[in-house]
C-alpha cells in the first residue's frame, strides 16, 4: 500500500507544480520578454521484484524555459536595425519638408530676387525697381539665415537626444550587469533561474533599441556585451559607460566617448544600430552635408553678385558697392577654423574664401607637426596637398583641384595641434544684405562705344563688354586713364589711332584683318588687367572712326544689370577648375535643386528602409513569440489536463487508503 500511496503522492506533487507553472505562464502573458515555461517530468527509479521492475511514480527534473538563442539574436539585430532606420527617418523627413517647402525653401526667394533684377534691368533708372532689388536681396539673405537656423536647431535637438539615449544605455548596461551577478548566484545550485534570464534578455533587447550590441555568452549563464568595434560595455557584473560630450573640434557637434575606469575613447564613428546609431548616421550623411551645401550656395551668391556689381557703375558714375556683406571679414574667417580641445598651442588660424565656385561641401582637418602642415578632406579621407606661400596655406587635392580657400595659420601652434576647417558651414548663417541705397546699384557698364556721326560707311560697333577685370571692384581711375580710345579704319583691314599707328592692346579674335560685311570681334586691353570685347560689323570706309570712352553718364545703361540677371543660370557652384566648358558646375537654382533632390532621395530611401526593417522586425518578433510566447488557449487546455491528472492521482491515493482499510479490517 505504501508504494501505491507514494506513487499517488508523486503524481499530486508533480501535477500541482505543473498547475503552478501553467498559472505562472498565464499571469505573465503580457510581461515583456517573458518566455513560456514547462514542467519536465521523469519516472522515479523502479523497484525490482521477482516479477520484474515495478514503477515508483514520477518526479520533476526541470522547469524548462522555451528559448532559442538564434531567435533572440535575430530579434535583437532586427530591433537595432529598425530603431536606427526610424531615428534616421524621423529626422530627415523634417529636413526634407524644410528644404522642399514652397514657403520654407530657398528657391522661391532666389526666383524673386532675380525677377526683381530683371524688372530693374528693363528700366535701370527706376528707383522703385532698384529698391525692390534691395528688398528681395534682404529677403533672400533672411531666408538663408532662417533655413540655416532651423537646421542648427535640429542639430541641437540631436545633441539632447543623444545625451538622453546615452543615459538610457548606461542605465540598461548597469541593470544587465546586476542581472549577470544575480543569475550567477542563482545558478550555483545547478538550475537555471528562468525569470531572471528573461528579465536580462528583455533588458538586452531594450538596449538594442538604443545602440547595436554584440552578445557573447559566458560560463555560469553570464553574458558580455560589446558595442562599436568591440568596446566591452558589460563584462560579467561590471558595466562601462557611454558618455555624450561636446566634440573636441566642434563643441556644437556632440560626440560619444567610451569610458571604462580612468580611460576614455572616442567611439562616435564606430557606433551603429539603434536610435543612437541612426542619429549619428543622419548627422554625418545628411545634416552636415546639407548645412555645408547651403552655406556654399550662400557664399556663391554673395561672391558672384558682389563681384559683378563691382564691375559696373551706379547712377552717380561710381564703381558699384557690394550688395551682400563681406564673408571674408576677420570674425567670419576666424569662425571657420576650430581648434581641437587637446591643442597645447594658442594659434587661431583664419580661413578666407578665395573662390566660392570651386568649394566642396566637405570639412577638413589641418595637422601641425611642429614644422609643416598637413590636411585631410573628411568627406572621403583624401589627403590634401598644402602649399605654404609667405605664411598663407593653399590646398589642392590629388588631381590638382584648388579647394577654394586659404588659411593663414598665424603664430602660436605647437607640434601635434589640430584644427577643424569648415569653409562653408556658416555661409548661410552669416549672409547679410548690407546695401541700403538703391542708386548705388551698379547696373551700368564702365565702357561705352559710339561711331563718329561723320562716318561715310555703314560700319557699326556694339557696346563693349568687360570680359576681364583686374580687380573687383574695378578701378575706375585706371579704366578712365586708358580712355577715350579712338579706332580709325585705314581701309586695309586694320584700325589705327592716330592714323598710321596701330592701336595698342587691340586684337581681332580670331586674329586676322577686318572683313567688311561680317561681324568682327575685337578685344582691347585697357591695362591693369581690364579687357573689353566688342564687335564691328558692316562696311566702314577709309577714315571712319569709332570711339571707346568711360561711361560717365550711363544712367540708362543696363548692361551690367543684364549680367547680374544672367548669374541665375550661370554655372558658378561646384565648378571643377581643371575642366572648361558646359557641365563643369551648377547654377544657383540647380545647385539648390540638387541639394533638395539628394535629401528627397535619402528621405524616400529611409521610408522604404523603414517599411522593410519594420517587416523584418515583425517577422523576428513573430518567430520568437511562436516559440517563447504564451498561448492562452494552450495554457487553458493545460489547466484542464493537469487538473484531471491531479484528480486521478488523488484517486490513486484514495484507492490505496481503501485497500489499506480493507487489509486492517481482515485482522479485526
UniProtKB/TrEMBL annotation:
Cellular compartments per GO CC: bacterial-type flagellum hook; extracellular region
Stretches assigned to the Flagellar basal body rod protein N-terminal domain: 5-34
KW Protease (keyword) present: no
The Flagellar basal-body/hook protein C-terminal domain, residue ranges: 628-665
Pfam families the UniProt entry points to: Flg_bb_rod, Flg_bbr_C, flgK_1st_1, FlgK_D1
Domain of life: Bacteria
One MF annotation (Gene Ontology) recorded for this entry: structural molecule activity
Compartment list: Bacterial flagellum; Secreted
Keywords from the named record: Bacterial flagellum, Cell projection, Cilium, Flagellum, Secreted
Keyword match Protease: no
SUPFAM superfamilies recorded: Phase 1 flagellin
GO BP terms in the entry: bacterial-type flagellum assembly
Principal localisation: other
UniProt domain Flagellar hook-associated protein FlgK helical: residue ranges: 93-324
Domain Flagellar hook-associated protein 1 D2-like as annotated: residue spans: 341-423
Alphabetized PANTHER family for the sequence: FLAGELLAR HOOK-ASSOCIATED PROTEIN 1 (PTHR30033:SF1)
Sequence similarity: Belongs to the flagella basal body rod proteins family.
Protein name: Flagellar hook-associated protein 1
Taxonomy of the source species: Bacteria, Pseudomonadati, Pseudomonadota, Gammaproteobacteria, Pseudomonadales
